[in-house]
Task: structure prediction
Amino acid sequence: MAEPQPVPKSWPFEEAQKVAARLAASGKTSALFETGYGPSGLPHIGTFGEVARTSWVRRAFTELTGLPSRLLAFSDDMDGLRKVPDNVPNKEMLASHLGKPLTRIPDPFGTHDSFGAHNNARLRAFLDSFGFDYEFASSTEYYASGRFDAAMTRMLERHDEIVAVILPTLGSERQATYSPVLPIHPKTGVVMQVRIEQVNAAAGTVVWRDPDTNEAYETPVTGGHAKMQWKADWAMRWHALGVDYEMSGKDLIDSVRLSGRICRILGSEPPTGFTYELFLDEQAQKISKSKGNGIAVEEWLKYAPPESLSQFMFNQPQRAKRLYFDVIPKSVDEYIANALKGQGQTEPVNPAWHIHGGTVPQSAHSPISFAMLLNLASVVNADTPDILWGFIRRYIPGATPEDMPLLARLVEYALAYYRDFVRPKKEYRQPDANERAALEDLAASLRTLPGDTSAEDVQNLLYEIGKRHAFVELRAWFGCLYQVLLGQNEGPRFGQFIALYGIAETTALIEHALARPTDPV
Result:
């Protein structure tokens, strides 16, 4: 018997192992992965993160088992609209339809049959733009088509058990009227949150009363005439579809636990799950769609390639991370480094393998880091790509945007990032006496070097000068270079920067900094 192959050490493979074990125990021969989406708003960066991460687990599952799988992107478009979003037109029109399923509300943008259809289309376009492999599912369609009929009937059969599980999690006022069943009002079309007076499991109906008219109705739970409250809905969906894997945020831990209990009451094992940490904004506060803090996908993609956003999402998903503009350069350079390591590799040994679906393309390479491009743009105050390419071609003779497509994209991104974030914050400081002596020494030493001196030799010279002028830590010496010469607190490997910018140009930069007035205007 062949020895089992070691499992690659990365979190998607650890998760994929759990799915493989689940299938082995159940006897299933294919896996269903699911992500959920609430279409009352537009797709956001959390949507991207959840679909990307689930896709990586799915890809790892395929690599481990060779078994088929599907990814279902499920839209809860039958939910009632609770409030009018801030970022839509025709707010008064929407306000007149509050409480109705999103798919029964006119589209405020006027482009689709309903508000739900509009947002579903935005979701699909969003996912398609990143090349995700998925199947789209509409809650309205699944309810109305009868896909959930058997599971809904099962919910009625176990109604009292389900209520008994949920009631302890509710306040006393809500407990008095709670039922997991939400009938759709046959006249107004509103999703009704009312007390269920009678449950008739045999007939598959519930009896309830309109709180405004006191009129009683008997509504079938099948055929889209009713839906479930969301925690019960989640469990019902897992049971009906046989979902094997679904991840969710830390804020839903209790909901996952509760939905899992309901799923077991229905007679199914809840899916294998993964809890990811939430993102934090610039002030280390939880990102909220309603607050609009943090950073949107389209904002990230204005300053960096989508692969860098994937890199950010891949890193330590169970650790809370700040998601703001200042994390972009590091994510870009982490992606570049991983893509370089992954060139030609067939083993899933780094994030680039997952980001590119198993094969890292040769075009995913840049000989110059994003941080280096930012610093070059900063020093020369660049506002066009041609300025940067002039330096790049001197550093890499014959380099062209056509031959280096990733570098060409990074040049454009670097200019945008420099314009919006680096240039407004540039703040030079004066060197102290020891730093001034070291900088004069560096300028004199650079004058003696040939123009084609390697980046490594320049870096060694920097080390020698730092030691010669007795800096307590060489970090302080490099901090001086960044703050005095570049007007910022951090920067790239300075020897490579000098090689890219030019030895003569760096010498002039030092001379200019040393001649800067003590109190610059």
Q: What stands out?
A: Residues 1-145 form a domain with the Rossmann fold fold (CATH 3.40.50.620). The mean pLDDT is 92.
